[in-house]
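Title: [Solved] Pentapeptide repeat-containing protein 3D structure

Original question kept below for reference.
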Amino acid sequence: MKPNELIERYAAGETQFSGLRLSGVNLVGADLVGIVLNGADLHGANLLFTYLNRANLAQANLVAANLSGASLNQADLNGADLRSANLHGALLQGADLRDTDITLGILLDANLIGADLRGADLSGANLSGACLRRTNMRQEKKNHNTKLQTTNLYHADLQGANMKGVELLRANLVGANLKEANLCNVDLRKADLTNADLQGALLTDANLIGASLVGANLTGANLVRSKMSDTEAMGANFHRAIMTQIKFDRANLSRANFQAARMNHADLTRANLSEVNLSEAYLVDAFFARANLTNADLSNANLTRAELMSANLIGVNLHGAIMPDGRINN
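Solution (posted by the thread starter after getting help):
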């Protein structure tokens, strides 16, 4: 079918075009709101600025298609193949993108507010500057989760997103907004979260081994049982964060702010805690074996039963702190 015929038939009221073969078709700027193209072959199609609001594109082949600037709000793209597709600046608010393959896709500045991305594969995709507020990426069943491995999310807006169980191995989240996001059980190994905003984020049982959190803001975040071995978090802000049973062994936490943080049973073995602010922190049963606490501020901290025997305590401020033996240091 030629583009003109499709447009004429659609204008005449026909909407059912399931399974149509339209590879390489040019439909730039076409008005196809609500069209049914499920299972259609549109690979390499030029859909620049095309109106596809509420369109049914489930299981469609959109490999390497140009959807830059296209309007796909509330469209059904369930199971569609969007590998290497160009969705730069596309509007995908409330779209159904469950189980889609968008590997190596271009989604710079795309609007995905409230989109359903459960089970989608966005590995290697470029989502720099994209808005993913309130998106649903929640893992629903074992071994079936949203994949964002090596994905570029530089300065992306993920505030309030449900990302429970998402794979973010080596993802670029520099400067990303992750305020109040659900990041329970996520895989953030070796991810770059430099200067990311994680205020109030839920990171229980998250895996951040080898990640970079330099300058990140985790004020009030929940990091209970998180694994942060070998992380780089110099100058990060953990003010009032809940970090019970966290693993910070061998982490570089120099000059970080842990004021009033809850760190009971934390493992800080061989961590670099030089010049950190741990004033008023709760460190009951914390383990500081071979940790470097040079010039750290532990004033008014609770160190009941903490292991400090082999730690470097040169220049440490312990004024008003509850010491491991229960006495208050005056």
